[in-house]
Amino acid sequence: MLIFVYIFFITLNFISYFVPKRLYKIELYSITLFALLFGVIADLILDLHYKLYGYFEGGFQWKGLLGEFLYFIPISILFLNYYPLYKPYKNQIFYILSWSVISTLLEWSILKTDFFYANGWKLWYSAIAYPIIFLILVINLKFVKKLLKQASC
User: Does the chain have fewer CB atoms within 10 Å around its N or its C terminus?
Assistant: First the structure.
């Protein structure tokens, strides 16, 4: 089953690489770095400090870190590349909630493999956290756009 997780992650990377981009390369670069740093820090705290969940087995795993690179980067690209930034708020809320439901279902399916385990973490925590995480990614994108606009003036 574990091989299917990596195949899925690699497929996500190919999709995120080849989809038509609506964002500038500097935006893609900065949002992926932010998403990766944000995800790794959250995992360090929730996994290694609080031991709520983890990758493979207790403690740091290089293959778990690889999984984070293979997951956080394409998800942030795909999510933000198609985010309806200039649409009404109801469209934006629906978009974030849709991605949150998909992410929760994906997490549930990955919990069925040896890739990810929950030690005290409940799936409904993720269902609550995903909208907040996606909103933070949107705020970061808006911040990057603001910085780029200021730099071009």
Answer: C
Percent of the chain topping pLDDT 70: 99
Residues 11-25, mean pLDDT to the nearest whole number: 96
Q: What is the pLDDT of residues 36-57, one digit of tens each?
A: 999 999 999 999 899 999 888 8
Predicted pLDDT of residue 53: 92
Among 62, 57, 45, CA closest to 119: 57
Maximum Cα–Cα distance for the chain, whole Å? 52
Cα-Cα end-to-end distance for the chain: 52
Report the alpha-carbon distance of residue 95 to residue 28 in Å, rounded.
Answer: 19
CA distance 59 to 137: 27
Q: Residue 121: pLDDT above 90?
A: yes
Contact residues for 72 (Cβ-Cβ < 8 A; gap 6+): 32, 35, 36, 38, 39, 40
For 24-82, the three-class secondary structure string (H helix, E strand, C coil) is CHHHHHHHHHHHHHHHHHHHHHHHHHCCCEEECCCCCCHHHHHHHHHHHHHHHHHHHHC
CB-based burial label for 79 (10 Å; 0-12, 13-18, 19+):
buried
Burial 48-60 (b: 16+ CB within 10 A, else e): eeeebbbbbeeee
